[in-house]
Amino acid sequence: MNDRPASGPGARHLSAVPDPVAVPERAAGALPRPAFEIAAGHAFAGPALDLGALMWEGRCLPDAQVLLPLSSLTRHGLVAGATGTGRTRTLQLLAEQLSAQGVPVLLTDVRGDLSGIAEPGEAGTGVTGRATEVGQRWTGAGRPTAFYGLGADGAGVPVRATVTGLGPLLLARLLGLDAVGEETLARVFRYADAEGLELVGLDDLRAVLTDTGTVGGPGGPGGVPSGAAGAVLRAVSAFEAREAAGALFGAPACAPADFLRLTADGQGLVSVLEPGSARDHPPLWTAFLMWLLAGLYEALPVVGDVGRPRLVLLVDEAEPLFSGASPAFLEAVTRTVRLIRSKGVGIFFVTRAPQDVPADVLGQLGNRVQHALRAFSAEDREALRATVRDFPESAYDLGELLTGLGTGEAVVTVCGEHGAPTPPAAVRLRAPGSRMGPLDPAALRAHAERSAPAPARPRGGGAGNGNGTRAGITRSLFGTATTGHRN
Ligand SMILES: Nc1ncnc2c1ncn2[C@@H]1O[C@H](COP(=O)(O)OP(=O)(O)OP(=O)(O)O)[C@@H](O)[C@H]1O
Ligand SMILES: [Mg+2]
Question: I need a surface site. Which of 44, 349, 406, 480 has the fewest CB within 10 A?
Answer without folding.
Answer: 406
